[in-house]
Write a structure and sequence with these properties.
It contains 3 helices and 5 strands; from the N terminus they run H-E-H-H-E-E-E-E. It is an alpha+beta fold and about 150 residues long. It has 2 domains: about 70 residues, no CATH class; about 60 residues, Beta Barrel (OB fold (Dihydrolipoamide Acetyltransferase, E2P)). A hairpin with a 2-residue loop joins strand 4 and strand 5.
């Protein structure tokens, strides 16, 4: 049974839309495993701010999923076994490239804070958010651990 091209195209488009719906973490959002956890809190003054771009991690999920969808769709193109195999390989390559590009396009705007803690230590923290929410000289709360730190007012 041959799948029409529009089914393949709508499958890839649906995959892209689902990826765009992934919730973005921020200073006011918490994962389920963070709820109920006691974390250290310190106070600090903002010394400097700069806008940064947060790229997605290197998970290769987009490449693998796009490749699988492309292989399935491409294998339906030919009228012989050889054509189906060639279509599947070509579909996997194209689908993988599209999936990788879609995953790489989900970048988030963030802020890099340079903070002078009340203890005298200077640290830098990057988190999703907008610079307009903070100013140099603001007093802020720094909570969390070295692996998961948040800066809030």
């Amino acid at each position: 049974m041959k799948l029409p091209t529009y089914i393949l195209a709508s499958s890839v488009a649906s995959f892209a839309l689902l990826g765009a719906c992934t919730p973005q973490p921020g200073p006011s959002s918490f994962s389920r495993n963070e709820v109920g956890q006691a974390v250290p809190v310190q106070f600090a003054e903002i010394i400097s701010l700069r806008e940064v771009e947060i790229r997605p991690g290197q998970t290769n999920v987009g490449t693998v999923a796009g490749g699988a969808l492309g292989a399935i769709g491409g294998s339906q193109i030919g009228s012989s076994t050889a054509a189906n195999v060639a279509g599947g390989v070509a579909g996997a390559v194209v689908g993988g490239a599209i999936g990788s590009a879609l995953q790489g396009s989900s970048r988030t705007t963030g802020v890099e804070f340079t903070l002078k803690l009340d203890s005298g230590e200077t640290i830098a923290v990057v988190q999703p958010g907008e610079m307009r929410d903070f100013r140099v000289g603001d007093r802020v709360r720094v909570s969390g651990t070295a692996q998961n730190t948040r800066v809030t007012h």
